[in-house]
# Entry
Amino acid sequence: MDVNDRAPEFQPSNSYHARISEAAQPGTEVKQVIAIEYDKHAENIKYYLENTGPGSDAFEITEENRESGVITLRTQVDREVQEEITLSVRAEDAGVNPLSNFAQVQITVEDVNDNRSVLGLSCSFYVLAIITMKCPINPLGAKT
Ligand SMILES: [Ca+2]
Ligand SMILES: [Ca+2]
Ligand SMILES: [Ca+2]
# Structure
């Protein structure tokens, strides 16, 4: 008899990356994770989102996606608030004594020009960058 002695293994590794636009609407598919189960009679893996890190509650694995591993957007994300969000996904096998494994999904929130004040801020950063570049040649605009 095949004992359930191996936890599911995420493929190709337990580290995923995804990108999502801050304009994306709730329900948008963000990423699908897949784990493989090696023990017989324990193949029906279920995926759960562990909402631990900051911003992670904007994502979910719904009941419909429990066995597909599809992560969807629960609420819109705001790049001006948080640009990188890390999720922890748990895959649990269907053994009598279920075993779990974890994966990290690092999500980059892509910018949309949705915020006037932040656009202004971006402009000043841009100007600052130009000044910084010129500084070594002509510091403080002084004649040399
Ligand atoms: Ca197993
Ligand atoms: Ca925004
Ligand atoms: Ca934006």
The longest helix spans residues 116-134.
